[in-house]
Amino acid sequence: MPPQEILQWAVDTYGQDLVMTSSFGLNGVALIHMLQEITRNFTVLFVDTGYHFPETLKTKQQIEAKYDLRILVLHPQLSIERQAQMYGPNLFEHAPDLCCALRKVQPVQRALEQLEPEALLNARSRFQAKTRQNLPVVELTRSPVRIQPLALWSQQLVEDYVRSNKVPYNPLHNHDFPSIGCWPCTAKIRLGDNVRAGRWVGKTKEECGLWTA
Question: Is the pLDDT of residue 182 over 70?
Fold first, then answer.
């Protein structure tokens, strides 16, 4: 099934009990565009980690305004300053897993506990990383159910969709940043690199931990 049909099934099945997470990367804005053509009655969860690129925050604002979306902005319990007092400065350098857990994973987990959605949409694809090569379209055994409508799409399909539908996107994608996270842990990639090669460079870390929690 194409992503649009998967989304239609998700909306028909879960209705208002369907939420989406997004950091407004290229896959994310493509999926938002597809979903808003079916319904505007959904919530997007966005974690303001305190480390986003200005371009990411601007893209969020553009998407929110263009599609009149309901975006729930989540925040870590600790400010960056308080986190530094408790764990030392630049936690992302010496304990990136803990930094992601505090600033991204836990805020989403708290929101899901409050909202109690039946299904959770995300924009991951198999082409993005070896850790995602076997990504299923639907994970019915998870709670909430995980739905990845773009799991089988290629990078080219995503790029073509965004371009043809004139979807606002992060301009950093035009400057060798195909995958964008927090600025301390995101670097440009080189020709031939995997699209997520710029994430946590020099670390063994490949995922933020949100989808394995």
Answer: yes
End-to-end CA distance of the chain: 28
For residue 145, the enclosing domain spans: 3-185
The answer, as to whether pTM is greater than 0.90, is: yes
Q: Is the pLDDT of residue 60 over 90?
A: yes
Three-state SS at 164: helix
At residue 213, the pLDDT reads 58
Domain at 66, CATH number: 3.40.50.620
pLDDT greater than 90 at residue 147:
yes
Judging by DSSP bridges, how do beta strands 145-147 and 119-121 pair with one another?
Answer: parallel
> Does residue 185 have an active-site annotation?
no
Residue 204: inside a domain, yes or no? no
From 99, 100, 182, 208, active-site residue: 208
- Is residue 212 pLDDT above 80, yes or no? no
* Sheet with 145-147, edge to edge strand ranges: 70-74, 43-47, 18-21, 119-121, 145-147, 138-139
CB 209 within 8 A of CB 105: yes
Residue 199 maps to a domain: no
- Domain presence at residue 205: no
User: Three-state SS for 84?
Assistant: helix
